[in-house]
Amino acid sequence: MTELTGNATHIAAEENKLIIETYGAKAEISIYGPEIIRIRISKRNAAPRESFAVIREPAALSPCHEEADAITLETGALTLRIDRFPLRFSFFNKNGQLLGADDPRFGTTWQGDRVITYRKLFPGEKFIGLGEKTGNLNRRGSNYVNWNTDAALHTPETDPLYKTFPFFIGIHDGLTYGLFFDNPHKSYFDFGATTDDQMSWFGADGGEMNYYFFGSASVAKILEDYTWLTGRMEMPPLWSLGYQQCRWSYMSAAEVLDVARKLRERQIPADVMYCDIDYMDNYKIFTWNKDTFADPKAMIDELASMGFKLVTIVDPGIKIEEGYLQYDEGIREKFFAAYPNGEEYVASVWPGRCHFPDFYREDVREWWGRSFAALTDPGVAGFWNDMNEPAAWGQNIPWLVQFGKFTLPEVRNAYGLEMSKATYLGTRKLLGNKRPFVLTRAAYSGIQRYSAVWTGDNAATDEHLLLGARLVNSLGLTGLSFIGVDIGGFMGDPTPGLMVRWNSLGPYIPMFRNHSAIMSKNREPWLWGEENERIIRKDIEQRYRLIPYIYACFYQSHTTGMPLARTLAIDHTHLEPVYDPRFQNQFLFGPSLLVAPVVSTVEETEVYLPPGTWYRLSTGERFAGDQVIMAAAPLADLPVFAKAGAIIPMQRVIQSTSFAGDGVLELHVWHGHEPSEFLYYEDDGDSYNYLDSDYYRRLLKFDPESNRIILGQAKGRFASRYREILLLLHGFGTHTPTTFTVKNDRQQILVTITK
Ligand code: MIG
């Protein structure tokens, strides 16, 4: 039977909430900010649930205005109209324009424990978001399920994948709004796929109708508000922005060292080596194989002497084996997920029969965190969390297994988040003041506070290359910035062309990692022929040249939630070509570089240039925007464009971020007719001292009218690692690029460009 939310029979303000009672349900309205309103509707009198995602408390309730059949609530930026007969919600901006509303017929409903809200669908309304979802940028006409899954062998159509982000942005009539459905149960979103375009709907198998409505007028501000609510990333360790070389698996310390040495010999810049599951003794987490990795510290020291950091994998499954420390401790302390009768739950994964830590408990998270000493003692710097959907051979874990105060169906989608949280907090403690690098496959909203993510087991095809770009861009719409895809495709063997092409996208993927599956052919950059190795090296060098820019962009993610890889829908929300399947994979990398991913089988491509002026990065050629151009796209030159006015800090090639460069910061300025600016940011790259003003930050500006470049006074205590700033001017006149060198002191510097 379907129960509809009926009439509001009783309305009262209680502290900072507006409480509305209907027959059989109760709604609570609270205000988190002028543009953030929370609606919580539960059957009967359910106690509020703690959120895995939200880290803020509500503000004071806004003034309410009562009419005969409705109440309105004004936040200053939004008006919430609450119709009483029956209870329905409508959100307006301050110009009185309707942003979003319940479907007037149905609103919020229950069917048993299932809770669903039916919403008004506007003509031409577009939807973006939901994070790691296949399909088009514009999700109109599609529907999705959130149920974290070990989606090995997924295709560009598979749903669900590994992660859950029940947050989307609606776009219609030149307006924008966001909606975050904070409910970790299995959830559903339908953007007019099955409703004859009459309505959209979202809901879950259980729990509450519990959503936050964001009413800002731009996607960027909605992301800022959403990441205010759910948290933002810390600054990543600088080394993690370098090139990362992974493989399932490098089978011994000798092999790890051999690959690292070859990277140096061949002058292919790199910062990170990985150990996948085979470094362990029989896949026992927090152990090392005594034969093949006999002296982990010696290996890690030798890697360090070559400028490498090591990342090792950890899975949740703890092997059932007496005498194995984590097994014994976990049993003794009852740290594992269990059936209602207290028996530990058992399932098989790589180690064989395993128990699974109950990461929903703080004592379990602390124990897990402490266990990393086995890895941090010899010097491991990064921690790769895999299989945390959680995966078990056979996939769906019985519903009666208990995690914390919950059963599996209630919280499965948050397991990866809670594991990553335990990993991050634990390793952060063990590493003292050093930043741990944490990487996870499964996630829920809020994961950006603890971990980078990658998109799991993709395949070595051109379709997956394009899908990867869309997944990264879509994840960027849910508060994440540090995102990787397996370059080359995890499953199967790429052609040399695909390997080269995918690697050329690598500099513009926030986490640049080459990874491949056991049984596939090795992927290291020198295995593709001499000419291809040269191209791959050139592209990895480009990554290292861009690191000052990338680092400063991560500072923006840290302070505002703006992702590094940005779908064009962020800056150009209301332009139709942005959603055209031909152009939907394009994105801005930081504020200034437009990247057009291209498959490996073509040598030219159509590119949509948004309004403004653009310069091809490789040639300096200038293009008027607001048009589609045909761009040459040979394997050695992915189409990348700098925006007019761009100020892009770069450096000369170094082989590792831990090596001192030549002390010269290049500032590339691309001429434009509008004033432009870029916030330059630098810090020590590996401690938390930046939280206490130990950074070097200055606003860089270009003013075309006075033809001046202004380097604002430096703020913060940190001394820049660059002695000198070299200005490189592009598109300023005939002699391009023109160069100037200035000393990098902390004072404001004005450079007037004379022709
Ligand atoms: O069942 O650790 O997505 O990156 O190499 C496969 C082995 C387990 C899945 C991960 C992949 C990793 C692999 N893991």
Portion in strands? 25-35%
Largest sheet features: 8 strands, antiparallel
Q: Label the overall shape.
A: globular
User: Which sequence of strands runs across the widest sheet?
Assistant: 2-3-4-5-20-17-16-13
| Average pLDDT, all residues | 96
Helix content: 10-25%
Number of helices: 12
Would you identify the regions where 5 or more consecutive residues have pLDDT less than 50? none
User: How many E strands?
Assistant: 50
State the end-to-end CA separation: 77 Å
Ligand list: ligand MIG
Classify the secondary structure makeup into a structural class: alpha+beta
Query: Rg to the nearest angstrom?
Result: 26 Å
Would you mind describing this structure in some detail?
The chain has 755 residues and is α+β, with helices and mostly antiparallel strands. The strands form eleven sheets. It has an eight-stranded antiparallel beta sheet, covered by helices on one side. An eight-stranded parallel β-barrel has the order 21-22-23-27-30-32-33-34, surrounded by five helices. The protein has a six-stranded antiparallel beta sheet with strand order 1-11-12-19-18-14, with no helix packed on it. It is globular. The protein binds ligand MIG.
Topology summary:
Layout: E1 2-4, E2 8-14, E3 17-22, E4 25-33, E5 36-43, E6 64-66, E7 70-74, E8 78-83, E9 88-93, E10 98-101, E11 108-111, E12 114-120, E13 126-129, E14 143-146, E15 163-164, E16 167-172, E17 175-181, E18 187-190, E19 199-204, E20 209-214, H1 219-230, E21 244-245, H2 253-265, E22 272-275, H3 296-305, E23 309-314, E24 318-319, H4 325-333, E25 347-349, E26 352-355, H5 362-371, H6 373-376, E27 382-385, E28 402-403, E29 406-407, H7 408-411, H8 415-430, E30 437-440, E31 443-444, E32 452-454, H9 462-475, E33 483-487, H10 496-505, E34 511-514, H11 530-560, E35 565-567, H12 568-571, E36 587-589, E37 593-595, E38 604-609, E39 613-616, E40 622-624, E41 627-632, E42 640-643, E43 647-651, E44 664-670, E45 676-683, E46 695-703, E47 708-711, E48 724-730, E49 738-743, E50 749-752
Parallel strand pairs: 15-31, 21-22, 21-34, 22-23, 23-27, 27-30, 30-32, 32-33, 33-34, 44-48
Antiparallel strand pairs: 1-11, 2-3, 3-4, 4-5, 5-20, 6-7, 7-8, 8-9, 9-10, 11-12, 12-19, 13-16, 14-18, 16-17, 17-20, 18-19, 24-26, 25-26, 28-29, 35-36, 36-37, 37-42, 38-41, 39-40, 39-42, 43-44, 45-46, 46-47, 47-50, 48-49
